[in-house]
């Protein structure tokens, strides 16, 4: 299944991921799988609309998520060590037990 991720600022497609999931999988699950695909394939995640993505327990070490919209995303237990989260929008994101050592949260919105 193809999942199109748009840019949060322009609304234009930023990348298209080929993910394996059922056709009735929730958009949160689809977005989460798309992010994992992006990391694996070197896609640009900066400024991406990843709102509500299910990224619980995901390995995102060193990922460039600068300016990304991660509002309402499930990042519980995710490894975000050394990730670039500058200017990321994290309102309502679940960061419980997330590993953030060395992550750059400069200018990130955390309310």
SSE topology:
Layout: E1 2-6, E2 13-18, H1 27-41
Antiparallel strand pairs: 1-2
> For the report, how would you describe the main beta sheet?
2 strands, antiparallel
> What is the number of strand segments?
2
* Discrete helix count: 1
Q: What radius of gyration results from the CA coordinates?
A: 13 Å
Q: Give the termini separation.
A: 34 Å
Give a brief description:
The chain is low in regular secondary structure and 111 residues long. Helix content is 14%, strand content 10%.
Describe this structure in words.
14% of the residues lie in helices and 10% in strands. It is built from one helix and two strands, in the order E-E-H. The protein has a two-stranded antiparallel sheet. The radius of gyration is 13 Å and the shape is globular. The termini are far apart.
């Amino acid at each position: 299944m193809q999942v199109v991720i748009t840019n949060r600022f322009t609304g234009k497609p930023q990348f298209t991921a080929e993910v394996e999931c059922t056709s009735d999988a929730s958009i949160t699950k689809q977005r989460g799988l798309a992010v994992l695909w992006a990391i694996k394939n070197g896609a640009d995640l900066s400024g991406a609309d990843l709102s509500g993505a299910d990224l619980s327990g995901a390995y995102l070490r060193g990922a460039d998520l600068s300016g990304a919209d991660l509002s309402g995303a499930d990042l519980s237990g995710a490894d975000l060590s050394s990730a670039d989260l500058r200017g990321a929008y994290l309102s309502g994101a679940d960061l419980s037990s997330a590993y953030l050592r060395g992550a750059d949260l400069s200018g990130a919105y955390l309310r």
